[in-house]
Design a protein that fits this description.
Layout lengths: L7 E2 L11 E10 H6 L1 H11 L4 E9 L19 E5 L6 H10 L15 E5 L1 H5 L10 E3 L6 H10 L4 H9 L4 E2 L27 E2 L15 E4 L1 E2 L10 H4 L4 E2 L2 H14 L4 E5 L9 H10 L3 E3 L10 H9 L4 E7 L3 H7 L5 H13 L4 E8 L6 H17 L3 E8 L16 H15 L5 E5 L2 H11 L5 H11 L1 H12 L24
Parallel strand pairs: 2-3, 2-4, 4-5, 5-6, 9-12, 12-13, 14-15, 15-16, 16-17
Antiparallel strand pairs: 1-8, 6-7, 10-11
Helix pairs in contact: 3-16, 5-6, 9-10, 12-13, 13-14, 16-17
Length: about 500
Amino acid sequence: MGKLSLTEINTVVKDIRDVDVLIGYCYPSTYRAGMTSLATHLFYSSLNRRKNISCERYFRYDTYSPIRSVETKRHLKDNHLIGFSLSFEEDILHVVQMLSEANIPHIAANRMNEDPIVIMGGPVVSANPCPYELFIDAFVIGEGDLVFHSIADCILNSESRQDALGKMAELQGVYVPSIKKQPIKRQIMQNLDELFHPTKQIIPDVPEGAKLEPVFGKALLVEVGRGCGHSCKFCLVGHICRPRRLRSFEKLKEIITKGINETPVRKVAFIAPTLGDLPEFEQLVEWCIERDLEISAPSLRADSISRKSLDLLMQGGQRTLTIAPETGSSRLRNILGKGLTDEAILKAVKLAADAKWYSIKLYFIIGLPYEDEKDILAITNLSKQIAEIFPGKITISANPFVPKANTRFERNAQSPIYIIREKIRTLEQGINNIPRVTVETLDPRHARIQASLSLGDKKMGEIIKIAASYGGLGGWRRAEKETGLPFFAIANNRERLKGPLPWKFIQ
């Protein structure tokens, strides 16, 4: 992929002669995806507040080089500490490729004292770090806001690499595979109001709609809350980020006021698993509009939507309403723990039509446990009812079920790929006859790879190592063949899922 030129606002560049610890924050995907992640801004800003630390960013794609920092082109190998954030299982290939390209031994056991310590956090490893142990020195299990500083202090106060890892192993929420201390207690921040929130955020100086523009455009990312109070059986966030915690209305206003002063944008993108759970949500949107700010809101629960909230969001510039019914039938929704009726979904759609919204996007999951053919047909029927109510564009996003470690569906097998394909075909055929409705789906092969990594153990390291050398979908097939490990069968091997689970040492 070609390298793109890049100018940014609010970057931090330090004279390395004045600092003690050099940190490389790595997002193993595109620049656009990485800069849409609040974690990038959080760790970058928080670490660079310390005079003795220099934190610079690295991305797998679309910058000068994946092994040269965006800020000063500092080589990845020249850092004392390298931190990867893993939000999507398949990005582990990019992690291995970045390490290899930087001439850092990608096998953790082969690193010498002069090599950087490689740590990894993010939702994927907070659920199950086992498949990635071959490559990573230490994992952050849970929320890393405070522990990241403690990890940096371990580097500062240690005489050797092994000494630093030993100190890290003593920290709550840190798992060091080479030092077996179990169980590991997941790190959860209780009071969000007391936590640092980045307000001086990096904005790429690019035209609107450019390839390097973040998903929400030029916007201030504002974290409203963490965790979810609904805990659907399939949902990773609802399990590993418990309990639900919300920032106070006053704190959110303080963050936005400071952020708009320090970041040259006029748009606020709210980040939360369940934004509608904030009691003052409508007040917050209204407060932003009074200050002439645009609004971007993520998926909303259908039963939390009101006509007033839709009017306010549209006034703030939002044009697409996103809701997640998950499945077409109330029966299956109840089994999932979703607790959402058809009536609530259709009421939300009617409110959006009355408020003259331009488009609606609905998220569904195909191949769920306890699903039958009627449930697939129910998605078509629900889509027809929605099209009869809503005159605008309707997008149905239907992705295969991926069982996740540390959820209540962790022992539920994924359907064979051919069955998933049949279900997708059934859905597409039903939707094709409905005007203004389009369907987006994920290739079931990618869903199978994600599931195998999600449910895998440390043997997956050999598969990942070989797949990274080849790349692409074919790389996984070749890795399975060369290792003789049944990689693609892991997720639908019901017998295997009856035994002890590799990730059970995480509390």
